Structures are given as structure tokens and as C-alpha cells.
Amino acid sequence: MSTPTLPDTFRALRVIQDGDSSRAEFQTLSLSELPEGEVLIEVSHSSLNYKDGLAVTGKGILRRLPMTPGIDLAGTVLDDSSGTHQPGDGVILTGWGIGERQDGGYATHARANPGWLVPQPAGTDAEWAMSVGTAGFTAMLAVMALEDAGVRPGDGEVLVTGAAGGVGSTAIALLSAAGFAVTASTGRTEEEAYLRELGASSVIGRAELPGMKRPLEKERWAGVVDCVGGETLAGAYASTRTHGALAVCGIASGIELHTTVFPLILRGVSLLGIDSVTCPQPRREAAWTRLACDLPASRLASVTQTRGLSEVPALAPQILAGQVRGRTVIDVNG
What is the reported pLDDT for 6? Predict the structure, then answer.
């Protein structure tokens, strides 16, 4: 296969320093201004996550300025000096600090290390990959962790907190597809029909879990996917059943965890940390392969919207305000 002609310039949404604050603007840059990396990627799609909302609105998540946000990207390899990937290969990149420590997916081109990339699963495309994105990948890791810990569909209810968000909504769909009875916890009571459509069999309000203050509450959950942290996680942990497990992947309600060791030592409950940023490559590829089977594009259609990169500055405050549900795919050429 012949090497494609490389462009001289590319378009990017950049967050720049503007006096004492920062702002986002579109720029045309030279290809030489991309960060170091052996693989040059022509990006077709990215996505909009909570972290991206923080970055675009100047909330301090970016480690330096100027920088291109976008913690997810999918596209086609143009060149790989390491020989790991071939020109024309479809690849997915999530984690590894892109969009935070290194320029990310809100650009038509990107550079990356070859070991960061996952091959596009057969039968899928870049738009599907970004409808899954970091949120769906994290949800898949959480479900796999629960299964590895021995949680099975017949064991009882599995709780998903922060259920209307990107990770939560995808976790509901994945757990439901795997045969689990899912209870969704959300502060957005108006989203009950949406959560049930995803596969939740019951819905509880946000206030129920923080109200569980005793070291050991009545046993209820066989497993938990927690996207919230704080008092919500503490309540879920105290009410998890004997030999149950909690996959912990979010801090929407706070980073502190005030609780006791009693569920660990009296019920054998497992607390499982989910790290989607530096997840080892074999686990990454296994998760994406399973996502291609369990979460096809047809299953995601009702929870996904596609918007252009030009719309991201307006969308960023909306996701921070909790006004965006499900997944938002970003067409970087739009």
C-alpha cells in the first residue's frame, strides 16, 4: 500500500491563555505543531465527555496551554514509523492523558504512541467507536470487573449510580444485555422512561443511597457500578450483599469515602477500582471486542447524538450543567 500524501496543515479547537483566563478558539496549524508520537492519525470523530466540558470552558483540567481538548478519538492511520500499524488501519484512542496532558481529539489530525491505539473492531466504524468512547469503555471495564469478581445475573439486583450519564447509561445497557436485573439511581427523575428503555428494571432517587448511614445496611445489591463516589458510594457499599462487589469509576458527588471496613470483613464485599486511562493493552482490546458484540450501533442509536466540532464550544457548558444525556459523538469535520 502506498503511503498517503500528508497534509501541510490541520484544523483544531484550541484552548488558549487569554489574560488571566482561557478561552477556546479554532485554529489552523502546521502538522509540525502536533505533539511527538510515532503514529499520525487522520481523525474523523471524537466525543463530548464531562472532562471535555471542563477543558473547553477553562475549568483547569488542561495541564498546559495552548492545548487541543478531546479525551477520545477515532480515525485512520496515515503513517506509523514504528511499523505497528499500517496506513489505512482504523484505530481508537482513549485515555493515556490525551485531551489533558497531550493534544487530543478535537482536531482533524493527531499523533500518538503506537501502544496507545486499539484496532477498530471488525464490522464497526469510527462513529460507533465514539458513541461508545471513554464512557462506554469504562462501563465495559466495570461490567467485566464485576463478572471477574463472581457477580452473576441470578445473584440479585445490580445498582448503577449516576445512571443518566454517559458511563451509567452505557453500563445499564451492557448489564441488561448480559441478563442482570438493573436498578438505576439518578437525580434526574424525569429520565425514568429513558433509563427503563436502556434496560433498567427499577429506578431510585439520588437521595436514597446517601441516607444509608449505618456501617452495615440491609443487604440489597449483588453488584454496583458507581459513577458518583462520596456519600452515594458509601451507602451502596454498606448495602451490598455478602460476597458482592462494587466497581468504582466516578467522582461526580465527591472524592471522599467515609465508611468502615465492616462490609469487607463481615460480608466479603469487594471494592474494585476501574482505571480506564492506563488500562493494559490486552484488557483494552478484550473490552473493545466485547463492546462490538454487546453494544452494536443499533443499540446505541436511541442514546446517541452526532454534532459537529464547530458546536463544541456551545455544548461544553451544557454537559457541565447536566443538560446532556447519553452520548454525544463529535464529527471533527463538522
Answer: 87
Half-sphere exposure of residue 160, counting CA atoms within 13 Å on the CB side?
A: 31
Q: Residue 248 corresponds to which cell in the numbers above?
A: 468504582
**Given CA atoms 185, 173, 276, 265 in this order, what sign does their dihedral have?**
positive
Distance from the Cα of residue 199 to its chain's centroid? 19
Q: What is the pLDDT of residue 96?
A: 96
> Backbone phi, then psi, for 248, in 5-degree steps?
-105, 120
Torsion, CA 246, CA 249, CA 254, CA 260, rounded to 10 = 30
Give DSSP secondary structure letters for 149-211: TT--GGG--EEEESTTSHHHHHHHHHHHHTT--EEEEES-GGGHHHHHHHTEEEEEETTTTTT
Give the pLDDT of residue 302: 79
pLDDT of residue 27: 97
pLDDT at position 195 over 60: yes
* Calpha distance 128→133 (Å, rounded): 9
pTM score, whole prediction? 0.92
- Taking the C-alpha atoms of residue 116 and residue 296, their distance in angstroms, rounded to an integer, is 23
**Distances from the Cα of 255 to the Cα of 19, 127, 185, 230, angstroms:** 31, 32, 18, 6
Of 169, 154, 106, whose CA–CA distance to 307 is shortest?
Answer: 106
